[in-house]
Amino acid sequence: MCLEKQSLIIDRIDLGAVGSPIGRGCVAPGVERMGGTTVSTMKQLDNLSGLEEGAKRACRSNRPVLVSRTRRAPNLDPLSFFASGAGTQGARNFWSDPGREETLVGLGTAWRTESGPQSKNRYEKVERDWAELIRGALREPADVPRGAGPLLMGGFSFDPIGEHTSLWEGFSDASFILPRFLLTAVRDGVWLTVNAVITPEDDPEEMSQRLAEEEDQLVDAAVQGYIPETHPSYDAVEVEPERWRQAVAQAAREIREGQLEKVVLARELRLHSQETIRPASVLKRLQEQQPHSFLFAVERGDACFVGASPERLVKKEKHHLYSTCLAGTYPRGSDPAADQELGSQLLRDVKNRQEHAVVVNMIVEALREGCTSIQVPEEPVLYKVRDVQHLFTPVEGTAHPDTTLLSIVERLHPTPALGGYPQERALSRIREMEAMDRGWYAAPLGWLDFRGDGEFACGIRSGLLRNKSASLFAGCGIMGDSDPVSEYEETRMKFQPMLLALGGKKR
Ligand SMILES: C=C(O[C@H]1C=CC=C(C(=O)O)[C@@H]1O)C(=O)O
Questions:
Q1: Would you say 233 and 274 are in contact if contact means Cβ atoms under 8 Å apart?
Q2: Least CB-packed of 40, 190, 340, 452 within 10 Å?
């Protein structure tokens, strides 16, 4: 629809109060009145000038144009916002870092990029597609906080070459969504970004009306603050535990023979519930129970990959890079003294220190290629989460000007904390020895913004929810002296966060 429309002159209205109780109760649900103009209409007008400009650009360049508008939304709670999108979108994304400095909730799809199996260039493809869309985008305002404005949310599968089963249907080897609505909760407050990709065929007025209506519905539902509470009772089936213990023994033998240094073997626990498992309910419990972990949910169609991972893969903020070496695990103690004693034992444990060192060496090498300088402490410290404690070494670097976030993700993934060492040998042993499709388990997931900044975590302590079923995943680093029974116990501890978050009882 490339007709030159007469430009509307619109008074800019600060929509900081969107969804606030002003006028609530005086008008139909979803519409709030302010000085004779409905908020819905104001939103529509507010978005319209950008969309009209975008439509003109789309016509001139004959290509889609991204129009993105961010404003404050002080009264929105991230979890309620996530829950408010249930059912309507099938494309929700939730992200929160362990400091809860940046919580992002994406609802709906303004644009997406995907890569299929065997795709060797999946990282470059996402970056290329995104750069192409961002070129010529209209953003308002120019300055938005980190985590707001146009950005992609999603992730990658663990291994594009390994077997792909129907379990992970909907989750391709790279899948990133530019959310139609993005809520960003940061120290500075809460922001709402509305993204639209307008083509020469679109009518900006119609689009702006549709966006305003959708936003009203979501914001109204979120303001009600309803988060479903489910307590399903479920049957749990461990997938081939004996075969897994044998694989651990076999891997340890191969390591002693010098065929490889380390491999991470994982297993699956399948749950069947009496009622539909609600991702928002699981996220709520994870938020309460796992304050020191990344929280994530990636919904694709009727499935949702959810977890509370303690492990950062990489964060990029301007030219600063931050990564994490997390490997080596002990249980938590039943009281502070016992906990401290177990922590001291872990710090002295030879097998765990070696397992950890393999990870540090690889991450430092991988970062070195993209950095002008690297800082890494000499000794690991403890990182304690609710059910286990780990050896932890943070690594920081200063990136070369041309080092991109996804090029670092590609270099790092899978680190020996998730795959093994040497990488290719470990990957081929995982493909042969594990009786499961890892899908997105242990893979990079996170967000990437219009500046090239963002953050990725490793998708561990996680599960894939689909209607009444859940598949939970847990793995451990196998070394030459690994004992199959203790490694099996370690995976039991690592299932705990998701089992607890499902909130139900084992039948
Ligand atoms: C592979 C997992 O954990 C990794 C991360 C931290 C500690 C690990 C370990 O001690 O084995 C694993 O390398 C998992 O939780 O599924």
A1: yes
A2: 340
- Pairwise CA distance, residues 130 & 112, whole Å: 9
Residue 311 designated active-site: yes
Query: At how many degrees (to 10) do helices 484-502 and 241-256 cross?
Result: 130
- ipTM of the prediction greater than 0.95, yes or no: yes
Instruction: Check pocket membership of 309 for ligand 1, CB cut-off 6 A.
Output: no
- Is residue 476 in contact with ligand 1, taking CB distance under 6 Å? yes
Q: Which of 32, 215, 261, 311 is catalytic?
A: 311
Cis previous bond, 414, omega within 30: yes
Q: What is the pLDDT along the chain (507 residues), one digit of tens a residue?
A: 564 433 322 222 222 222 222 222 222 333 333 333 445 556 666 677 789 999 999 999 999 999 999 999 988 999 999 999 876 667 999 999 999 999 999 999 999 999 987 677 999 999 999 999 999 899 999 999 999 999 999 999 999 999 999 999 999 999 999 999 999 999 989 999 999 999 999 999 999 999 999 999 998 989 888 888 877 788 999 999 999 999 999 999 999 999 999 999 999 999 999 899 999 999 999 999 999 999 999 999 999 999 999 999 999 999 999 999 999 999 999 999 999 999 999 999 999 999 999 999 999 999 999 999 999 999 999 999 999 999 999 999 999 999 999 999 999 999 999 999 999 999 999 999 998 999 999 999 999 999 999 999 999 999 999 999 999 999 999 999 999 999 999 999 999 999 999 986 555
Q: Is the CB of 269 under 6 A from ligand 1?
A: no
- Burial (0-12, 13-18, 19+ Cβ within 10 Å), 20: middle
Place of tokens 């989750």: 171
460 lines ligand 1 (CB under 6 A): yes
Please tell me the distance from the alpha carbon of residue 51 to that of residue 205, in angstroms, as a whole number: 8
Scanning 375-440, the segments in alpha helix (DSSP H) are 405-412, 423-433
d(CA 482, ligand 1 centre) in Å:
14
Q: Is the shortest distance between the CB of 218 and ligand 1 below 6 Å? A: no
Crossing angle, helix 423-433 and helix 241-256, to 10 degrees? 150
- Based on the residue annotation, tell me whether 56 is a catalytic residue of this protein: no
299 is in an annotated binding site: no
Find the radius of gyration of the CA atoms of the chain: 24
Amino acid identity of 11?
D
For ligand 1, atom 5: residue with the closest CA: 327
How far, in Å, from the CA of 190 to the mean position of ligand 1?
33
Token code pair at residue 192: 């709402």
Q: Please give the Cα distance from 23 to 32 (Å, whole number).
A: 6
Burial class (CB in 10 A: 0-12, 13-18, 19+), 348: exposed
